[in-house]
Amino acid sequence: MSTRSSLARRHSALASTAEQLRILSETKEIPPFDTMVQERNGSSLRAGGIDIFQINVGKLCNQVCAHCHVDAGPDRTEVMSRETMQLCLDQLAKTPIPTVDITGGAPEMNPHFRWLVEEVRALGRRVMDRCNLTVIFVKGKEDLPEFLAKHEVEVICSLPYYQERETDRQRGVGVFDRSIEALRRFNAIGYGMPDSRLVLNLVHNPVGAFLPGSQKAIEQEFKRNLARKYGIQFNNLYCITNMPISRFLEFLLESGNYERYMDRLVQAFNPEAVNGVMCRNTISIGWDGRLYDCDFNQMLDLEVGFSAPRHISEFNYELLTNRRIVTGRHCYGCTAGSGSSCGGTTA
Ligand code: SF4
Ligand code: SF4
Fold first, then answer.
1. pLDDT given for residue 3 in this prediction
2. Which residues line ligand 1 (CB under 6 A)?
3. pLDDT tens for residues 140-180?
4. Mean pLDDT across the chain, nearest whole number?
5. Using an 8 Å Cβ cutoff, are 262 and 281 in contact?
6. Distance CA 184, CA 180 (A)
7. Is residue 2 pLDDT above 80, yes or no?
8. I need a labelling partner for 124 at 20 to 30 A (CA). Which of 11, 30, 89, 280 fits?
C-alpha cells in the first residue's frame, strides 16, 4: 500500500471518479445493487427522513491513509468556504434536523471549522466531529480538545486497530503513538470517562481485504487492550467496512484482491442491513455545496438524483426526506454481513 500522496497528486487514473465507476460497473457477475435490493426488499432504496446533516468541509488532511475513501491529504486544496457554510446554516435553521456531522478530510483543517461549530451549537443542534486524532498536533490546533469540550462536541475518532503495526500500516509511520497520546489528552479533559457528558467514540476498520468481525466483540477487545496498555477509555466502537472506492480500490487492484473482495461483499449481502444504511437518514453536503445521499456517493461524484434538489442553495427538506437514493455496486460495502454505516453496524 502506498501512503505517500493522494491519487490526485500522483495523477493516477483512479483519481477520476468516472474510472472508478467504470471498474465497478464492469465487474463480472455482480448484480446491480438496485436489482438486489428490489428482489430481496421489494422496492428501491429510499430515504426514511433526515436525522443527520453531514457537512464534508473539504479534502484537506494532515494524513494520507492508504484506505482513504476521500483521497484526502495535505496536497488537496478543496475546502468549504464560509459563504457555503453560511448557506448550510441558513438551510439547517429551517429544518428540525437534530444532528450535524462534520467530516472531511480532517475537518479541523478547514480555517472556518471552529466558527461552524459555534454557529451550529447556537442553533441548538448536536455536533459530531470526525477526528483523525493526530490533527491536534498540527501547529495552532493544540487546544482543539478543549474547544470541542467547551461546545460539547461528540468526537468520533478513527483508530483502525489497538496495535501499532496494523494502525501504522494503514495510516502512516508514527500515527499510532500520536493517536494514543491524543486519546490520553481527550480522556484527561473528561472525554470518554464514566459519568461525563463528553462522548468519545472510536472507529475501527479492517486493515486488509476482509470484512470486520462482530462489533460488540471488537469493542470489548479494544476496551480491554487500550485500558490495560495505555489507560485509555472510550464510549463506543463503530466497525466500518472498507469501501471499494478511491485509495482502497487502488489497494484492492494492486494487491490482486479486487474481484475476491467484491465477491465477498456480494455473497455477504444482508437484506436486514439495508434498512439501516446511512443514506436512509442522512443528507451529505460537499465542500462546494452539492448534495449527495452519503459521503461515499459524494466521493464518486454521484449527486442526489430522481429530481431531488442538487445544491444546498436549493435545499428542500420535504423533497429530500423521502427521496429515492442513487446506488451503485459500491453500496454492497454498506450491506455486507452486519452492515456498515457512519455509526457502525446496521443489522
Ligand atoms: S482516512 Fe481520514 S485521516 Fe486518513 S487521509 Fe482520509 S480523511 Fe485523512
Ligand atoms: S454507499 Fe451510500 S448510497 Fe450506497 S448504500 Fe451506502 S450509504 Fe447508501
1. 47
2. 61, 63-65, 68, 70, 72-73, 104-106, 132, 158
3. 999 999 999 999 999 999 999 999 999 999 999 999 999 99
4. 95
5. no
6. 6
7. no
8. 280
What does pTM read for this prediction? 0.96
High-pLDDT (> 70) share of the chain, %: 99
Q: Is 146 buried (19+), middle (13-18) or exposed (0-12) by CB count in 10 A?
A: exposed
Q: Residues with beta carbon inside 6 Å of ligand 2?
A: 277-279, 293-294, 296-297, 325, 327, 330-331, 334
Helix, strand or coil for residue 170? helix
Cell numbers describing residue 272:
436486514
Element at 318 (helix H, strand E) = helix 317-321
Ligand 2, atom 1, lies closest to the CA of: 331
Q: Given phi > 0 = left and psi -120 to 50 = alpha, else beta, which region is 55?
A: beta
Going from the Cα of 341 to the center of ligand 2, the distance in angstroms, rounded, reads 8
Contacts 24+ apart (CB under 8 A), 177-183: 178/133, 178/134, 178/137, 179/133, 179/134, 180/230, 180/232, 181/137, 182/133, 182/134, 182/136, 182/137, 182/145, 182/157, 183/133, 183/157, 183/159, 183/226, 183/230, 183/232, 183/234
pLDDT at residue 4 above 80?
A: no
Q: Of residues 208 and 282, which shows the higher confidence score?
A: 282
Q: Per-residue confidence at 346, pLDDT binned at 50, 70, 90? A: confident
Residue 95 CA to chain centroid, in angstroms? Answer: 23
Of 280, 277, 283, 279, the closest CA to residue 310 belongs to: 283
Q: How far is the centre of ligand 1, averaged over its atoms, from the C-alpha of 37 (Å)? A: 30
Sequence-ordered list of residues with C-beta below 8 angstroms from that of 76, at least 6 positions apart, any chain: 6, 8, 58, 59, 60, 61, 105
Q: In sequence order, what DSSP letters do the residues of 14-71 get, joined into one string?
A: GGSHHHHHHHHHH-TT---HHHHHHHHHSS--B-----EEEEE-BSB-S---TT-SS-
Atom of ligand 2 at shortest distance to CA of 280?
Answer: 8
Given a contact cutoff of 8 angstroms between Cβ atoms, the answer to whether 145 and 185 are in contact is yes
What does R_g of the chain's alpha carbons equal in angstroms? 19
